[in-house]
Amino acid sequence: MTNLTVTLLWMVLGFFSGSLPFSVWVGRLVARSDVRRYGDGNPGATNAWRAGGWRAGVPALLLDYLKGAIPVALARFEAGIDGWGLIPVALAPVVGHAFSPFLRFRGGKAIAATFGVWSGLTLWAGPTIMGLAFTVAVAVNQTDAWSSVFGVVVLGSYLLLSGASWPLLVIWVGNFALVLWKHRRDLRTPPRARPWLLRNFP
Questions:
Q1: What is the 3-state secondary structure (H, E, C) of the chain?
Q2: pTM score > 0.85 for this model?
Q3: Domain ranges in the chain?
């Protein structure tokens, strides 16, 4: 097979993997409920947790993470896809999660899948940087959408400062644009400080 054919094959596999609505399936299996009836109606791990507690939330989060990590890691480290060909392969799971054909193209917000993809691309570095930033943001801010965006922005800053390749930067731009689009309604609510922060810094 040609390089283009291999890239297209992994792109399709990545999209299919990302489109699998594990949070919805786990919610039905564990909580006997549709997770889209909870919270913001998003078919993601957070609402799976709301529907069935940790028994639904933890496996949903792990599966949503793995469906981004596994195809990208295999494509890069086993199939040897690199450079510009890595762009569609890496973005495919995130797009699949956000616009799942299993859910009539109404997928989740792609944060867990984003962590997975960057694990496949950078192993521990990307998800660790993004995870630390997200944790800090959640600790001081009540608006989840802004915390998610902050985590992805810090990841982008890390990539720039570490001299990441152009293909990785393009992947980040596409990923960031998708995260902004999926959170566009929630971002209308401005960031709000946690009560403990207001008490200590009036």
A1: CCHHHHHHHHHHHHHHHHHCCHHHHHHHHHHCCCHHHCCCCCCCHHHHHHHHCHHHHHHHHHHHHHHHHHHHHHHHHHCCCCHHHHHHHHHHHHHHHHCCHHHCCCCCCCHHHHHHHHHHHHCCHHHHHHHHHHHHHHHHECCHHHHHHHHHHHHHHHHHHCCCCHHHHHHHHHHHHHHHHHCCCHHHCCCCECHHHHHHCC
A2: yes
A3: 3-200
In tens digits, the chain (202 residues) has pLDDT values of: 678 899 999 999 999 999 999 999 999 999 999 999 998 888 999 999 999 999 999 999 999 999 999 999 999 999 999 999 999 999 999 999 999 999 999 999 999 999 999 999 999 999 999 999 999 999 999 989 999 999 999 999 999 999 999 999 999 999 999 999 999 999 999 998 888 777 766 5
